[in-house]
Write a structure and sequence with these properties.
The protein has 204 residues and is of the alpha+beta class. It has helices at residues 25-37, 62-78, 103-118, 136-150, 154-164, 169-176, 180-189, 192-203, and strands at 2-3, 10-17, 45-49, 54-59, 83-90, 93-96, 99-101, 129-130. It holds the Pfam family SatD.
């Protein structure tokens, strides 16, 4: 066995589609594959489907991991799908034959299980990020962002993606088939600028 790329600590991510049994599974998985292909290419091991409704990946930093989870979730929500994530900090061990183990994976699984349970608690329905290794303030910020994103309509998620990419307002409006003023109104009425700033603060 060997540690992945000889790095002492990495961030493992496990994602799981939400309520996939009640949706068009083929459409959801096609959306997921397209969304994964559009993510930044900064992962140690790119997020990819594994078994059932899960995806897994490995990142060098928590910021890079959180950025990919944010972008992936927004893209999924823009297509009326949702996804939850468990993140774990620790070692990633190559066992052989493409199989991995290690504390990062154990913690990520713990995070995924805990966030699924927490989201069933009254008042916490919109949270989608479990990260047992995170500082309390980081986790609180991530889950507050989750809750804000959960309240957005699909089109507004598209507008937020444009804002996060520094896409000009006119270009975002053209891409979405709406007027520039309508896109600007989405930004204003949904407080997307402070939301985008909070998200980007966790990416750094």
């Amino acid at each position: 066995m060997k540690r992945m790329k000889e790095r002492p600590e990495l961030v493992a991510v496990i994602g799981d589609l939400v309520n996939s049994r009640g949706s068009n599974r083929l459409a959801a998985h096609n959306t997921l594959k397209a969304a994964l292909a559009a993510l930044p290419s900064d992962a140690v091991m790119a997020l990819a489907p594994t078994v059932g409704d899960e995806i897994q990946g490995v990142f060098a930093t928590a910021g890079a991991a959180i950025r990919s989870t944010h972008l992936l979730r927004l893209t999924m929500l823009a297509h009326n799908c949702d996804i939850r994530f468990g993140l774990g900090l620790g070692d990633v061990v190559e066992i052989g034959d493409g199989i991995q183990d290690g504390s990062a994976w154990w913690h990520a699984r713990e995070g995924l299980n805990s966030i699924e349970e927490l989201a069933q608690t009254p008042g916490w329905a919109g949270v989608r990020t479990g990260f047992p290794d995170a500082e309390p303030t980081v986790l609180a910020s991530a889950q507050l962002i989750d809750a804000h994103i959960s309240a957005l309509r699909p089109g507004t998620c598209e507008t937020l993606l444009g804002l996060l990419a520094d896409e000009p307002n006119q270009d975002t409006a053209t891409r979405l088939g709406i007027s520039p003023s309508a896109n600007t109104q989405r930004v204003k009425s949904n407080n997307l600028r402070p939301l985008a700033q909070a998200m980007q603060a966790l990416w750094s």
